[in-house]
Structure formats: structure tokens, C-alpha cells
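C-alpha cells as discussed.
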């Protein structure tokens, strides 16, 4: 992740495409998420954790 407005990974809410990659691709090693992509990913992971937590809690209650 970087605070720079890079275009090193495709996708996200801004729909960065393969054609956009070269506009702000700053490194030649591991691609980085820009701040918007990192924040979006954090929310997606949080939602999945909440879903799994609710599922586990319901399964435990049903088994009791």
C-alpha cells in the first residue's frame, strides 16, 4: 500500500484497467495498492469477517 496515487493494480471502485497501468506505475517490483484500493480491500475483508463470525455464532447456538 502507498499513499501515492499509483496505478499498479487493476480493479477497485475506480475500475483501473490494464490500459491505465502505465499512467502512474512507479515501481518495477511488487505492485502496490493505492489508498482507495487499500481502503476498499479493508472494508471487503471486514465484511467477510463479520459474515463468518455471524455464521460461527449461529452454528454454535444451533448445536447447543
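Sequence:
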Amino acid at each position: 500500500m502507498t499513499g501515492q496515487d499509483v496505478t499498479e493494480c487493476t480493479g477497485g471502485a475506480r475500475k483501473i484497467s490494464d490500459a491505465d497501468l502505465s499512467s502512474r506505475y512507479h515501481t518495477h517490483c511488487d505492485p502496490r495498492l493505492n489508498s482507495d484500493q487499500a481502503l476498499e480491500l479493508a472494508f471487503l475483508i471486514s465484511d467477510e469477517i463479520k459474515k463468518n463470525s455471524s455464521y460461527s455464532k449461529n452454528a454454535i447456538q444451533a448445536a447447543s
